[in-house]
Amino acid sequence: MTIDPPAFRRVPHAPWRSVGDDVYVAPLGRAELDRLAGPAATAWRVLETPASMAELLGALGEAYSMPTDAILPEVEEMVRELLARGLIEGADGGSD
Amino acid sequence: MAVRTEIAPETVVRRVAGFGLAGSGSLLVVEPLDRRAWASVLDRVSEERILGLAAAAVHAGTVAVTEEQRTALLERHREAMLVALILERTLLGLTDRLRAGGVAAVVLKGPAVAHTVYRDPAWRQFGDIDLLVRTEDLRAACRVLVAEGLRRRVPEPRPGFDERFGKGVEFGSDGLIEVDLHRTLALGPFGLWIDPGELIDHAVGFSLAGSELQRLDRAGQFLHACMHAVLGSRRPRLLPLRDVAQLAEDDEVDWDLVDDRAERWTVGAVLVRAVRTASRALGWTPPPRADELVARVPVTRRQQRALAAYAEGSGAGIARAVATTQAIPGLAAKTSYLRALLLPDHAFLAARAGAGLRPSYVRRWITPAKRRLGQG
To answer: Per-residue DSSP letters for B298-343?
Structure first.
């Protein structure tokens, strides 16, 4: 299953902090906060500027010294989860 | 400077508070502190709310720690940042509601300095939200906060006290949300001498999570940091002193404007004490413009007497009340102020008395005298 938006970005209205290697995000409209660790924290940092799936894959592959085709399924699942939690959105402002 | 393990924990804490400042000497703790010394440092950096600076110093490799010590520090830093994030999310909602209610609110301290002055907002923790509103908007702002589910902590001593003599109104929730709604920057004479309306007129925008909020201009932020560091608690805390140093090193500060306000608002004594105390406490050398300000700004005997009223010690509350009375213009206003202090409303007395105690004027008048005798 493919992910529709051609590019992604962080949602703009979510306060966040880096603590150690992790990132904590407080999305608006929800009571809880999210902790992003490992590749999810890296993805958050990469998506400071909009990036396509291919660019995100490339950045994560480089960060973890892994071939992109090997990490594609996990990265797609992670992106879906980030979209579902309202932490990232399509770079045009949509989430699908 | 290489420092070995016998370094006093308090020295490490103070140098951590100055970490990353251009005017602070470099500190290198080359070996992890022993268990007892580290426990002391960890407690003190928590108490002084400088966990972010400690984490940054460890991350930079200037303070050596064991893996266990690093984990313990990061856990406390994480907790502090979760509080900051919850407060920021609340702040975004509150400023929206205040704007919709026609109230212009300026964000003070915490988020405003964390996001605009510090290298990384994670360096600057905070435990509440401080907002400055115009005196004429104070009631409307209070209504907005109540509508948002917050409760006023202590009732007004007498009707009209808040707008005439108060610093502002404190609100809280059942959870960890604390909001200080200010109409001026400090209790007592210095809070009465400054012109908060002018500070609001010169407020500038800053971005927090994509939203445009208002903060004081840099000169105003520096002035407020100095007032908070010196007047906000009996013993100057390291975080407000760090704010003083951090702002003094900021290129955006208009020192001529600081000079001008300090003279017009007669707060020179506060600025001088804040910069000197920060310098001593953090082992920090102020930049030349701050040094020049300290050497040049007029400090009168009246300011020094007022400043002494904020000093630690028995009877400080009475001294501050006397200094405030002297700063209030007009006999009728002075009388109103004293009447509110001596004969406040029963709701105020009850809140001050605490649970299970009967509100009593006598208890309010006699407690300070007993305390003085006890300390004598």
So the answer is: ---HHHHHHHHTTSSSTTHHHHHHHHHHHHS-SHHHHHHHHHHHHS
